[in-house]
Structure formats: C-alpha cells, structure tokens
Design brief:
Blueprint: H1 2-21, H2 28-31, E1 39-41, H3 54-63, E2 66-73, E3 79-81, H4 88-91, H5 102-105, H6 120-127, E4 133-137, H7 145-154, E5 161-165, H8 168-177, E6 183-187, H9 197-204, H10 209-212, E7 216-220, H11 227-236, E8 239-245, H12 248-254, E9 260-263
Parallel strand pairs: 1-2, 1-9, 2-4, 4-5, 5-6, 6-7, 7-8, 8-9
Antiparallel strand pairs: 2-3
Helix pairs in contact: 3-6
C-alpha cells in the first residue's frame, strides 16, 4: 500500500506540474507565420548602428529580418525602446529610466554614437508591418502600466507582432485584457543573486505559466536543455523561441522549421 500511495502522490504532483506549466493551445496556427523569419536582437545592430536604435531597426528591415526590441516607461509614462532599466550602460548616466522624464532622455546620445533613444511609436511607424516584431515588455513588479501603454499603440498596428516578458504579470495582463494578442514567457536560469530563490526557481521552471498561459516559450539558447523547457518541446509541443544566438554554429544546431531564432553579432 505504501508503494501505491507514493505512486499516487507522484502522479498528483506530475498532474499539478502539467497544470502549472501548460501553455495556451488554441493559438498554435497563429504562431506559424513567425517561423518564416529570423529575428535581429534589438535590431540588426553593429558598431555604427547601436542596439535598439532607429538605425538598427531600419537595418534589420532592409535585410528582411524580423526584430526583437524592448519597451519601457519613463517617469512621465512615455514608452521608449531601451533594454536596461538603468541609463548607465547606454548613456553613461547612473539613473533609472523611470526616474527620468522623456524630455530628460530624448536627446541623450547612446553607446558613444550620434543615435538617440527612440519611442515605440517611432519604431512602429518605421517598420510599418514590413517585417514581424517580437516586443519584450520591460516591467518591474506588479504594476502593468507599461502593458497598457504598449497596447495603446499596438491596437492601431494591424501587422504581425507578438509580446513577451520575463515578468509573468505582464503576460497575464494581456491574457486578461487582450487575449487575442500572441504572448510568450521569457526564461533562463537567472544569475541575479538578489532575486528571491523561490521566485527564481518558479520562473526558471515556468511554474507561473498558469497565470498567463503563454503561446510560446522564449528560453536562453545555452540553457535549452532545462527539463521543463524540454517538457514543453516534447509533450506540449509549445512554440520554441531561442535567444540570443550569437554564432553561426549554434544557429545551425538549433534552427529548424519549428523553431524561432533571435540572433545578433553575425550575418546569416
């Protein structure tokens, strides 16, 4: 009887795992068109055209690449395209983006170039549906204002795009408010030593998927053998997006008709 009880417990735990991590299944066909493209990470950037700038996005568009980009809010809730929450790496200013108004940010030169930080609206006008977009929502904590602001522009953008985030609350916002939008959960092993270890474990192993039921999983390419990610590949057959592929050898290893690749620092 003890062995039966253990087996029953294991079965219950496995079923619970499936419930917690399962994706949404109803939008699988809608993801197929996105497989036709490779996606330039933060635009097709180089030493002359910095990441997440107008020039990098135009370069990606001109090469026929889709592109991944990052959006976040300034203090006065202007939606800009920038990866880091801090301005230090991009502009040499040790301040958080949400501590600065757009007026304080808009003329800053980034990465020792003449390029400036674009708004999301400007980027959408530039791309105008010529290639698909992967839009990463940069959200701190529970406040989903950045999601609402992103949707303000996307609702008028009648072209191919998906949204994704490391923050499951951002994807839950889209699930609850605009379920028609294709959404994805970003994940990796999280080397942030300040992160709560329980939260880190849950995010790494996609245990928050029940909140957002993502349409795809965007996993760090060098960590794709993660057990739960493999569960998604082989049991759920969830759409896989791999980031960030930085060399042709890795690209050739992971690229197939089913996967979506976000790449940078090399030519295809």
């Amino acid at each position: 009887m003890e062995a039966v009880s253990i087996l029953l417990l294991l079965l219950i735990l496995f079923l619970l795992l499936l419930f917690l991590t399962a994706p949404r299944f109803s939008k699988r066909k809608a993801m197929k068109p996105f497989r036709k493209f490779d996606y330039a990470h933060r635009g097709y950037h180089n030493e002359i055209l910095p990441e997440n700038t107008y020039g990098a996005f135009e370069n990606a568009k001109n090469h026929g690449y889709g592109m991944e980009l990052d959006v976040q809010l300034t203090k006065d809730e202007e939606l800009i395209v920038l990866h880091d929450f801090s301005l230090l790496r991009a502009a040499g200013i040790d301040k958080q983006v949400d501590q600065c108004t757009y007026e304080e940010i808009k003329n800053l030169k980034v990465f020792d170039s003449e390029a400036v930080i674009p708004t999301f609206e400007e980027v959408l006008k530039l791309i105008d549906g010529q290639v698909p977009l992967i839009i990463e929502i940069k959200q701190k904590g529970m406040d989903c204002k950045v999601c609402a602001k992103t949707w303000k522009y996307l609702r008028h953008y009648q072209h191919d795009y998906v949204v994704e985030s490391f923050n499951p609350m951002a994807m839950m916002w889209f699930k609850q408010n605009h379920p028609e939008v294709l959404r994805g959960q970003l994940s990796c092993s999280y080397d942030d030593k300040t992160m709560n270890p329980i939260l880190k474990f849950c995010l790494k192993n996609l245990l928050t998927n029940f909140l957002s039921r993502p349409d795809f999983i965007a996993y760090k390419v060098n960590e794709r053998s993660n057990l739960i990610n493999q569960l998604h590949c082989h049991l759920f057959h969830t759409q896989q997006v791999y980031w960030t592929v930085k060399d042709k050898q890795t690209y050739d290893q992971v690229k197939n008709d089913e996967t979506i690749i976000i790449f940078e620092n090399f030519s295809l």
